[in-house]
Design goal:
Length: 582
């Protein structure tokens, strides 16, 4: 019960915000309409139950006029039922897509808010495969929540409607055993209750492992899909290394987890299906067994027996809601657990960014320099990485940062960008300053080349002439005619070409601070020198901070800073200042 209560509380926490959102009135009206139609359908079921009595009595009495009337009456009810069912499905789907759209937008905003997605990745917690959470799990949550909720409502209203009918029919058809009437008020109701409770208990006993199996199945499927995408994205390196056998083995191991867990689902599903199918078939004849003695003792007519059997089936079906939807409930509970983990990871990452014990990135009015005060960067496990105190990056200055690999140079850039939360100290950035980070492998979104270059700005930010000029300036004239061409540019362009386009992006954006993290390392030295001179010419007021290992880069920087080990951490140390950089 604690687990069920916790699940329902989580469902309310995830679902309720939509019905308090800007789209709340549309959502509430659609939900009210779907519920009203569900109640009307239950009402039709009650009318059909009484129709059963009259119809079968007309058959027993061979009354043609009553037979024709009841057939006509049934056609009216059937037409109303069909119309209600069609519009309930339509309104249900309309509500689903509006609800899903709102949840998707909300999760995208929270996931992509101020590098939250990056901090979640650093934590490596329950937020594995966020793509699956935002696509599959949101869709399943909305669908299952509505359908299970409506099914439960139907069961409760059906039970309330038919239990009175069944109780009165039990009195009209008393329990008849061994030739005697036994006074047992509402015995049909009690029979349905015992039958349903016993079935529910056995169903849960057999099927409860399905919740964990469904949770793991979704995770294994997502992991397998993610690794397939990684192979596709890195196909060139795999082909060059002749790594196909190794990748095939790794993928088969991942898929092996999918198969093994699926076999567990199959075994458990076979057991629960065997029980529920047996339960359902037995429930067809069980009411007739209870009421047949009274019928053969001529206590009731055929119509009364059929109505009683129908009412019993309705009550038993309502009480057996848990049994008939157990498989769906198990899947739904797994979906709820995954979305709960996703929301928890989002909140944890957000808290990490505002933790008083983490790095503070502040905006300084009246300052023209980036300053680091008592800064100590740490690894996620708390181990010290790199420290700096009283270190300043002056406006207009060009600084080269060197040091051994793994010393934390790139992490320092991440901290200045405000996305690395692990550590302590203060990083002060001039107010309204624009910063751009260019990594060794720049990111280009899939789409037209113009959008890839202007990213993250909108496509219309720069004219075609500006884009074409920037591409030509960085030495890629052949691409100038492909601005409208769609492509996966991280795959189709060489790393050197990607780095040139990264420089073109910087020329267009003209940031006040440009951080180059080995952003030209894949180019030959003459090309690298050409691009650094181009940056100096086109962005004379921009502060340049570079990470590099080539000694030739020293000529293009006024200041050189090295990262040197000091005990169990690294520190920033000024090594040289030049007065006439190239």
């Amino acid at each position: 019960m604690n687990g069920l209560g916790s699940t329902l509380a989580t469902v309310w926490r995830i679902a309720a915000p939509y019905f308090r959102s800007d789209d709340k009135w549309a959502g509430r009206i659609l939900l009210a309409a779907v519920i009203a139609i569900e109640l009307a359908i239950v009402g039709i079921s009650v009318l059909l139950n009484t129709w059963n009595n009259r119809f079968y009595n007309a058959l027993q009495e061979r009354n043609w006029d009553n037979f024709v009337y009841e057939i006509s009456y049934f056609c009216v009810l059937a037409a109303a039922f069909i119309a209600l069912a069609v519009y309930q499905l339509y309104l249900n789907q309309w509500l689903q897509i509006r609800w899903r759209k709102w949840m998707t937008q909300r999760y995208l905003v929270e996931w992509l808010d101020h590098a939250n997605h990056y901090r979640m990745q650093l934590q490596g917690d329950a937020a594995d495969n966020p793509d699956q959470r935002i696509t599959d799990d949101v869709k399943l949550f909305v669908d299952r929540t509505l359908n299970i909720g409506l099914g439960l409502l139907n069961s409760v209203v059906t039970l309330a409607s038919f239990i009175v009918i069944l109780w009165s029919l039990s009195n009209a058809a008393p329990l008849h055993l061994f030739g005697k009437d036994i006074d047992f008020p509402g015995y049909m109701v009690w029979g349905a209750l015992v039958y349903a409770v016993l079935g529910t208990w056995l169903t849960h006993l057999i099927g409860h492992p399905l919740v964990g199996l469904d949770f793991r199945q979704q995770r294994y499927e997502a992991d397998f899909r993610f690794n397939l995408v990684r192979v596709r994205e890195n196909s060139e390196q795999i082909a060059l290394l002749r790594g196909e056998p190794a990748e095939r083995e790794r993928l088969l191991v991942r898929f092996g987890h999918v198969v093994d867990n699926w076999l567990g689902i199959m075994t458990r599903t076979k057991k629960i299906t065997a029980f529920t199918a047996s339960y359902s078939q037995a429930s067809v004849i069980f009411p007739y067994i209870l009421v047949a003695p009274a019928y053969f003792a001529e206590k009731i007519q055929l119509g009364g027996m059929m109505q009683t059997a129908s009412a019993f089936s309705s009550v038993q079906g309502a009480l057996s809601f848990f049994i008939t939807t157990y498989r769906t409930l198990a899947e739904w509970q797994a979906v709820v657990a995954r979305l709960d983990g996703f929301e928890t990871a989002i909140n944890t990452a957000r808290t990490l960014a505002t933790d008083p014990q983490s790095i503070h990135v502040t905006s300084a009015s009246g300052s023209s320099s980036i300053s680091l005060k008592e800064l100590l960067l740490q690894l996620p496990n708390g181990a010290p990485l790199i420290g700096a105190n009283g270190f300043t990056l002056k406006a207009g200055e060009r600084t080269l940062v060197t040091g051994p690999s793994g010393a934390g140079k790139s992490t320092l850039f991440r901290a200045i960008a405000g996305i690395w939360p692990f550590g302590k100290g203060t990083i002060s950035i001039p107010k309204d300053a624009t910063l751009m980070m260019l990594p060794q492998r720049p990111y280009f979104p899939v789409g037209p080349l113009s959008g890839a270059i202007t990213y993250p700005a909108a496509n219309a930010t720069f004219s075609a002439e500006q884009l074409s000029e920037a591409i030509k300036l960085v030495g890629l004239p052949a691409l100038a005619a492909k601005l409208d061409e769609e492509g996966h540019w991280n795959r189709t362009l060489s790393l050197g070409e990607q780095q040139r386009l990264g420089i073109a992006r910087a020329l267009l954006q003209a940031p006040q601070y440009l951080f180059l993290d080995e952003a030209t390392a894949s180019l030959d030295e003459p090309s690298e020198a050409f691009l650094y001179r181009l940056i100096a010419e086109k962005l004379p007021a921009t502060t340049i901070v570079s990470i590099g290992h080539r000694s030739t880069l020293e000529a293009f920087h006024q200041r050189q800073v090295s990262v040197e080990r000091a005990g169990d951490q690294f520190n920033l140390v000024d090594r040289q200042k030049a007065t006439n950089p190239a």
